[in-house]
Amino acid sequence: MRLKFIASTFILGLSVLCSYAQKIGKVERPIDMVSTLVGTQSTYFLSSGNTYPAVALPWGMNFWSPQTGKMGDGWMYSYTAEKIRGIKQTHQPSPWMNDYGQFSIMAMVGNKTFDQEKRASYFSHKAEVAKPHYYSVYLADYDSKIEITPTERASYFRFTFPKTDEAFVLIDAFDKGSYVEVIPQEQKIIGYSTKNSGGVPENFKNYFVLQFDRAFANLSTFSDSLLVDGRLKIQADHVGALVGFQTAKAGEQVLVKVASSFISPQQAELNLKELEGITFDQQVKKGEERWNSELAKIQVEGGSIDQIRTFYSALYRSLLFPRMFYEIDANGQVVHYSPYNGKVLPGYMFTDTGFWDTFRCLFPFLNLMYPEVNEKIQEGLANAYREGGFLPEWASPGYRNIMVGNNSASIVADAWIKGVKTKDIETLYEAVKKGANNAGPMTAVGRAGADFYNELGYVPYDVKIHENAARSLEYAYDDFTIFQLAKSLNKPKEEQEFYKKRSFNYQKLFDPSTGLMRGKNKDGSWSTPFNPFKWGDAFTEGNSWHYSWSVFQDIEGLAKLMGGHAAMEIKLDSGFSLPPVFDDSYYGFPIHEIREMQIANMGQYAHGNQPIQHMIYLYNHVGAPWKSQYWLRETMNRMYSPNPDGYCGDEDNGQTSAWYVFTAMGFYPVTPATDEYVLGSPIFDKVTISLNNGKKVHIESKNNSDKNRYIQNLKFNNKNYSKNYIKHSELLKGANLSFDMGAEPNKQRGVSKGDLPYSLSLEDR
Q1: Which site in 98, 485, 541, 712 is 20 to 30 Å from 19, CA atoms measured?
Q2: CATH (one of 3.40.30.10, 1.10.10.60, 1.20.1610.10, 3.20.20.300) for 449-553
Q3: Tell me, what DSSP letter sits at residue 242?
Q4: Looking at domain 54-295, does it have CATH number 3.60.10.10?
Q5: What is the pLDDT of residues 317-326, one digit of tens each?
Q6: 593-652: pLDDT as tens digits
Q7: What are the φ and ψ backbone dihedral angles of 416, each rounded to 5 degrees?
Q8: What angle do the packed helices 371-388 and 362-369 form, to 10 degrees?
Q9: Does residue 13 register a pLDDT over 60?
Q10: So where are the chain's domains?
């Protein structure tokens, strides 16, 4: 009996192991592979993504999310929560930025209250369906179900109630100034919310309209702490409305169409027409088809079920931000409420993204896969410049005073160089030059310390401008992107040379005694004392070990400073072999990014934050591509999963997701504003990329497995190819890449000078 038990246990274990290793073929419905709950198991102190289950269409103006957190809590949905307070319209890019223009809708039975604690109902993930285009949840305390499916600016709700005389639907317009009006003869509620976390003009409002499919049995409105029956409208700090229904049988449904507008109540009514003549189930189908269409532009085959789920969940996150901030008026024209000057103006506008995060690979991903979307985004950036005087660096919805750098230059330059030929390029070129040479109206717009940088080539450590070394390094890269753009636009040679020369300013902060980047005082002396493990201070959400690699434009030049390719290779190795020690004295406590590095067991490599996410690819620049291949696989395997704790830090508006999407396919844009991608180690046997121009990129990986992670040989369009990079312009023609993979590194491939990826110092090759 004991032997039978041991044998059966062994067989069971073997079958489980085989199921994990089993590869999945072509996925016909990639939306079925998406989990919108990845990253929702997060807290203030430890991020596993800091996401929420966004119910939305790609780049939609309005998202919706179940709300487990209190009103105003940036962590609106936590996977570990036990109660749900409603379904919230949200425009939140991250919990750190919080929200604006939000309101919440909730269903209740026999509980006539607006109090967010008293109305909350227990729920379970076992009775929850969370998809990009559809969300439903069973409210255990009310024996009811809420379902929602969105359009770009509207949404359809379906409430299923038990038999009762006391079914209620609540609209909570939140505090900080709100208004509601119930119009019973039209079975409608209108109003507005002004609650925001900044970045809005004084006249900001989010106007909403709810259209019900049946008459109200009773109605109430509340203001602050007082609920009044029969009162039709109220304006105060915190208002809402409660409408009641009688359901004659169990399972009876109430349908509500909801839309909103940043322009006017009339425009909200126009936006409601996105649901005109459509049933709830028809809209679910339309949303499903839209998501499937976008997700299926990249078909992956021959990976594990977890890898495929992780890939498509990451791809979903890569298609949410920046969101639309424009609407279609009664004449069919594109218009927007300007978050920069408060006026209603023609043209596109997008928002809710931080370029410090997303310049690295989210925007390059759009340029590869969705150039038609980024063309509209570029027009929106030109409008932002016209309306606000500077390009935004972190928009939510207007200027926000957070993070460092002037990376709007990269956003503009990479789009143009990758073929997104916006009609506004001259306006945008003017905008990036202005931002590169001037301090803006706030620290995070334009360049803080611009006068110092223009004079010295760096922002000094001792002039009371925090995170100065990080700023200086990013400014030098941003100057490079302007140089690239100026060259592409055939601007005067002296103008090109001006920005090219400043692209080398990174050299001013390299300390040869430590082999790392370091803050420098105004008089040219080094800041002291220097601790390369100190987070913050001269750097941004990282330390010198992270920011010393922020020379995207000239890795060859960085290698020379470090003593050559072999020395830089050792330095890269050290990032993984050093213990995850840290100095948090600048902050006074371990910020969540510190803790996420500490617990990841990858040394000083902190994939949970953006500054170092490109670092693994740099082995390609020093002739050791097999080390990139090893560590990229390790990062994908260990730092990502399709589970609620599936990220190793903040997801950040698609950046950390797009890293996975690119890396899983086998290449990555280390240097935006150039024509190149650096090669990695593809995890799928087959990838088919359907480009916007009708061409396809086919990527095949033979003998691929977790063990066989090393490139033995690569054929590009059926010809042997030894380079560590591929060109964007070649991919756009349609391409075939065939990798032969193996268990041992091929140390003869990708090692010659001609195989190395782009560096400014090698530009004339």
Answers
A1: 712
A2: 1.20.1610.10
A3: E
A4: no
A5: 999 999 999 9
A6: 999 999 999 999 999 999 999 999 999 999 999 999 999 999 999 999 999 999 999 999
A7: -65, -45
A8: 130
A9: no
A10: 54-295, 449-553
